[in-house]
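User: Fold both of these, please.

Assistant: Here is the first one.
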Amino acid sequence: MNQTNNYENIICGITLNRIFGYEPAAALALIGHFGSPAAVFSQTPEALDAAFGPFSKYRDQINDRELEKSRREWDALSAGGCFFVLHGEPGYPPLLADCPDAPVGLYIRSGTAPEELFNGRDSISVVGTRDISPYGREWTEKIVGTISRSPAKPMIISGFAMGVDITAHLAALAFGLPTVAVIPVGPDDIYPKRHRVIAEKMLRTPGCALVTDFPPGTSPVAFNFLRRNRIIAGSSRVTILTESKAKGGGTMTARLAASYGRELFCLPGRIDDSHSSGCNRLIQENLAEALGDPESIAAQLGLGAVRKGKKELKEMLIACYGAAGEQTCTSLSLVALYVKAHRGCTAEEISRALEMPFGETAAAVHLLESDGFISTDLLGRCTIDNKKAYLCG
């Protein structure tokens, strides 16, 4: 196909994607009937009337005015480095193309050409609640860290939302895995805006991308998140739900993945913890398999044997703080190991448990957090930061 025809196909595909956004199967059927997106707009009025039928709400939108709107939009987007990949073309996620509700095309923002993003690379989606707990954060990082040590080095796909999604993206970046964010707004925007710096980092990182099927100017209304979720589930061979309430968006994505016949895994949680009720229910319904210990996760996901870690946490701390003296190094090791074994503990709890003066404990927590061994939330609850310490046994 020459460049002119490809441009016209993109413009016509963008137009059909906008018109049939929530009914993409109808648009793909129309394209299949006439042979290409451009062919749809080159038909006579009589041929279009026959194809659409007498009561179609879309027939009047097949016109030059809609095409001109798409040209203005696309010329601005393409000048900024955005791609648009049509269903069935190289660069369109092959697994997504098999889904009955696959979009007509995808807007892709990336420093990597679309045909190189999904070509031959395994893909795993990691999704879950926005209201992430220390347990969910630690295990999301731990799961992505374990995946990164597998021979397959798959792409991590998520929805860029707060909580589990952004934790998965950041963990992928930290562990050297490519990651793709499927956003619920148009390619001209970032949502949530607080993640703009992370989006910019992804766009500078080879193999990473922001993806959407929404046209420019789309607002992040609630219904759009459901439409976004089908791309996450459909583009992935495996979906992992690390933490979600029974009716959360992560659970909906997981159920979508199951409906597509994809492998689904859930991180089990306490039976009385609402954060894990969605995961526990999917396991109970036999829709998902429960994830086991970190060393078995890669095998469960079909990624091969993981590379063993080289250092225990205590060895890493000695290497990092040995010059500070034996007493300081011992205090830091005791605090870090306690945090590793007691997720969500506070400095006060650590001080009491270790019978260590509170000032010494607080100083150790501050230093360990500054150097990335642990993280603390707004309530002062401490968690091992797996992005640095995931090699620990």
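And the second sequence with its predicted structure:
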Amino acid sequence: MKHLCAILLAGATVLTVAAEDYSKCFIPGEVARYKVSWMRLPLAWSETSIDTVTENERDLIRIRMLTKSYKAYAHIYKVNNLTEVIIDPKTALPIRLDVLLDEGGRKKSHLTVFHHDKEIAVFQDRISKDIRVVPINRDTQEILSFLYSSRKKDLKLLASQTRTLFVDGKLYALGLKIGKDNKIKLPDYGKVPSTEVEPIAEFDGLFLRKGKIFFWVSKQDRRMVTCIKAKVAVGKVTVKLQKVSGPGDDAWIKKKK
């Protein structure tokens, strides 16, 4: 089993976009927590959070995705991954992407700085010491910026399009295949109506060339990924949403009594 964090990112890419007002797609203070299981063993947890930062007198959005193995199962498969991206909320374009991965003996340490006005991204591999300039388009996004800037777009419309994303220093095409609606049972939310989606891509580590991956996106507001299932070389991996916290008054946020 490889790349637990990457499975979450694969599923996350289908959340949907309000191109006319990207700032409303980002909710500072929002935290989504997931449980990652392999063969029904709860191997790891993953948490994605949103906050604001100020750089060069600009108010920006920071999204952090942290995935760690539970101590009780770290001897089976150790995971310690962190992805952080700084985004311009007005354009939903990434400014800087930092990826640190330590998973099952596999390590990554990448830093990318995007210059959309010049149509280039400077990619640095801290481990190999490789630094290269990658040509991009003026609207190129990476996975997390695409995820959150796509929260309000209709899934069928999204599936009719092919999107090019920046992943691990390269550009990849992403397509989507829409499946049936289903109800995903979640610990704090009961049975949540969700739509099955299959990503069609060639990102390294997303199982798409070695097995199948499917995920379910809630039909209700915020378009949260409720469940991800992937067939891997040995067994199956399941990722389920556990809790959403932060501001808001929708069905995902439970008011304190």
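The chain has three helices and 14 strands.
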